[in-house]
Amino acid sequence: MGPSQEALTPPQMDPQWSQINRYATFETDLDQLRSKLISEAPKENSEGLTSSIMLPLPDSTTRLFKIMESPVMEAELAAKYPEIKTYKGTDGKNYMRMIVTDNWMKAYILTDEGDIILEPLSIKDKNHYGVYHSYDIALNPESNSLRCGENGRYFLRPEERHQSNQNAEPEPVVEQIMGVKPVVLHKYRIALACTDE
Known about the structure:
The chain is of the alpha+beta class. It has four helices and nine strands.
């Protein structure tokens, strides 16, 4: 993965990219990446077996993540859609989840500075991607609600989050997710139908 040499122009990009204030672009050979992941990434395990992948960041740098395959679908559903593979990993500080199909990939990196999203620039082009901070999504501040405990963690810039949580003791994201605190596993089943609108 590297910076995109042939960046897509806005008319070639999917419309939602016009709502992203700042992003970096990069290019990858999805078929080659997918083959590497399928052949090298171990199944989820507690022995610490991982494979490595470099992921781009919004500042155009890259970071090495140790990953493992982490299925999220029930076995019968996974057998019906074998092209969908999901992974999890960490760079030692930040936590990452990634989904890869035959036609695209997406990754979400949870960091102390804000969440990072990696996704295709166009659903019609499987080799060109954009990466951005969630706080660079152009949102109408009045549309953000504080219902269900949402406190702006994902949408506020780091300095705004700091001002709103001055008394809170920060805890690194990776410790929140993969730390030594007791974890209660809840299993839910959901049926979801979507249209292409």
